[in-house]
Write a structure and sequence with these properties.
Layout lengths: L6 E5 L4 H12 L3 E6 L2 H10 L7 E5 L5 H5 L1 H9 L4 E4 L15 H26 L5 E6 L12 H20 L5 E6 L22 H4 L7 H13 L4 E2 L3 H12 L1 H11 L4
Parallel strand pairs: 1-2, 1-4, 2-3, 4-5, 5-6, 6-7
Helix pairs in contact: 1-8, 5-6, 9-10
Amino acid sequence: MKVSNKVFVVTGGGAGIGRDLVLTLLSSGASVAAVDINKIALEETLELSGGNQDKLSTHVVDITDRHGVESLPEDVIAYHGAVDAIINNAGIIQPFVKINDLDYEKIKLVMDINFYGTLYMTKTFLPYLLKRPFAHITNVSSMGGFLPVPGQSIYGASKAAVKLFTEGLHSELKDTNVKVTIVFPGGVGTNILENSGVDNLKITDESQNQKYKVLTPREAAEIIINGIEKDKFRVLPGKDSKMMDLFYRFNPKRAANVIANKLNLQ
């Protein structure tokens, strides 16, 4: 689906990949409803949109609140007149600790944002998308959604849930006007690590860690939008994601051990 002249709803639009998705869509001729729980971050995104501010609406919504999400389509349509696509990008990682040391409150929060937030957005907007001549749903999983990462097991489980949910949705909607894309980003230079408590994370092989260039949020956003325009089933931003996707398919246990050996949780 070509993004020009379409209306997108983007969650996590206040920072990171989400912000660059918003700005890149605007510069490509789309209108955007940016959704985030952080009002100040959304205001910064609006300011950065420059001459495209009239095509951007901002919505302070907690996507773990189903009723709040269910009120969103009415607000978006009131501003933009329609909704053609959603990008479920919002997500958090867990502190880098083993499952045995992770409290249930953190576990629930990760699952609520990463999986249930995606679910609420999808179920809420799908009836509207089915009425459009062309529509698109893009859900952002993670390289950690197909490859186990020690210290991120709950995050990985939430993103694996997004993966299979989206793949199932793709099959259910294959004969409709709604196309579905699942995204598996590799390393992207955002501030997500700063909010996860990574002091106990040790990379044991720095040379290997630098082998694959970390994408900027703008580069990741451009790859994702290109995938949407080509109606791709799977999008893997980053050489690391592409390489580990192939490696894990070929030898899951060895691929998992490679990651485990690189990380040393204290």
